[in-house]
Amino acid sequence: MNILHIDSSPFTENSASRELSAAIVTAWQQTKPAAKIVYQDYGTNPPPHLSAEAMTSLRSHQYRYLSDNALAEIAAVNQAIEQLEICDVLVIGSPMYNHSISSHLKTWLDLICQAGKTFRYSSTGPIGLLKNRPVFIASSRGGIYSYGEGLAHDFQEPYLVSMLGTLGLKDIHIIRAEGINMSHPGRDVVMANAMQQIREIFNLPAMTQPA
Ligand SMILES: Cc1cc2nc3c(=O)[nH]c(=O)nc-3n(C[C@H](O)[C@H](O)[C@H](O)COP(=O)(O)O)c2cc1C
Questions:
Q1: Number of folded domains in the chain?
Q2: Measuring from atom 23 of ligand 1, which residue has the nearest CA?
């Protein structure tokens, strides 16, 4: 079993999405001890943006006479798609940035969304070419967006569900820590609730409260 684990918060200390994505991977490992993990830390090592040269080449399938930069970008596309194709489970740590995902994660999406490779066009719209498999999104955000006034401003979770769904990944589970930066109920409670959500999904024993 292969797990592709992606983080996209540039913060390595006190990152809620990193903490949760790591807990999800650990929970999978407890269920499948032989699982192999491929880890991509796009938060600190973002994928390359695609140049016009690379995008033109990918669309036309002409790979001759390319600059070294374009070749490196195309290699990054191929590697990202290959990692996705061979994984059985995808785990993504995603902080909300300006109502959407971090640009670090967006550049990865721009790599993997390739017509003819991960989706194809049809008369009724795009059709995903990836085999469906479970996707776990560790979503963190400073405020509340799952209900109330924030709902209309959530371009993070619905966007990820939409784009991954376009590629054929429709079995999406969201573990959400929202209100991280609000005083009530506070980060500790929000994180404890999200961790509890993970334990329930994986049938792990609940944390016992200290006496
Ligand atoms: C550049 C930036 C933009 C942010 N934009 C939002 C936002 O639009 N809405 C929100 O609720 N929180 C926003 N936040 C707060 C983060 O979503 C929150 O701190 C989250 O926990 C970050 O994930 P991390 O802890 O894994 O880094 C923003 C934080 C940063 C640094």
A1: 1
A2: 95
